[in-house]
């Protein structure tokens, strides 16, 4: 929404989730141009993220990579590929950090019909130890070390919707002449 570059978080969020959201926005601001995000967007627009309350508490250090993916997808117009789930916290330098509960998260994704899971590379030993081929079935796990790798795997290559671009200030609009046929 148009505004003065404020960042608002509402909903059922714990402190760790709020920190993840803030870090995800910071990384996206710093790296967005590489993904076709207008750098002026962050100077002119407010961002409001709402996480509705529900039966499952939303707190814990596993959502940073997904938050970055959601922000970059929205602001670049590049949708997230279907049938994909991900987990992993992130650093401001773009490193994807390991998480806990690998088996539970993968089984939850499988129950939801997910075919591919992006997971921190440092969790590969956990996955190999806890997830047999019988458990995985046709599910694929892709191990990632950086947010750039996450975005490479998660986002479709070309935008299908226009990227969000800040509106031009009133009174400074430049009219482009129409071609005469």
Structure characterization notes:
The protein has 181 residues and is of the alpha/beta class. It has one domain (7-154): Ribosomal Protein S5, domain 2 (2-Layer Sandwich), CATH 3.30.230. 35% of the residues lie in helices and 15% in strands. It contains seven helices and seven strands. It has a three-stranded parallel beta sheet with strand order 3-6-7, covered by helices on one side. A hairpin with a 5-residue loop joins strand 4 and strand 5 (96-97). Helix 1 packs across helix 3 (64-76) and helix 3 crosses helix 7 (147-154). The termini are far apart. The relative contact order is 0.18. The model is unreliable at 171-181 (pLDDT under 50).
Write a brief structural summary.
The chain is built from seven helices and seven strands, in the order E-H-H-E-H-E-E-E-H-E-H-H-E-H.
Features:
7 strands, 15% strand, single chain, 181 residues, 35% helix, alpha/beta, 3-stranded parallel sheet
Tell me the layout of helices and strands.
Elements: E1 7-11, H1 15-31, H2 41-44, E2 47-51, H3 64-76, E3 84-86, E4 89-90, E5 96-97, H4 102-111, E6 116-120, H5 124-130, H6 133-136, E7 140-144, H7 147-154
Parallel strand pairs: 1-2, 3-6, 6-7
Antiparallel strand pairs: 4-5
Helix pairs in contact: 1-3, 3-7
């Amino acid at each position: 929404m148009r505004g003065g570059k404020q960042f608002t978080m509402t909903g059922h969020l714990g402190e760790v989730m709020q920190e993840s959201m803030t870090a995800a926005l910071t990384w996206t601001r710093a790296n967005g141009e590489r993904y076709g995000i207008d750098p002026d967007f962050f100077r002119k627009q407010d961002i409001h993220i709402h996480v509705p309350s529900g039966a499952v508490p939303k707190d814990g250090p596993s959502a940073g990579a997904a938050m970055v993916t959601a922000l970059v997808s929205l602001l670049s117009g590049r949708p997230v590929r279907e049938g994909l789930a991900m987990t992993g916290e992130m650093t401001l330098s773009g490193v994807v950090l390991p998480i806990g509960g690998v088996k539970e998260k993968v089984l939850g994704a499988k129950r939801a019909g997910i075919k591919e899971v992006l997971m921190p590379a440092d969790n590969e030993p956990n996955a190999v130890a806890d997830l047999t081929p019988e458990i995985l079935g046709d599910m694929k796990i892709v191990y990632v070390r950086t947010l750039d790798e996450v975005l490479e795997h998660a986002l479709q290559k070309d935008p299908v919707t226009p990227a969000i671009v800040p509106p031009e200030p009133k009174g400074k609009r430049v009219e482009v002449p129409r071609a005469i046929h």
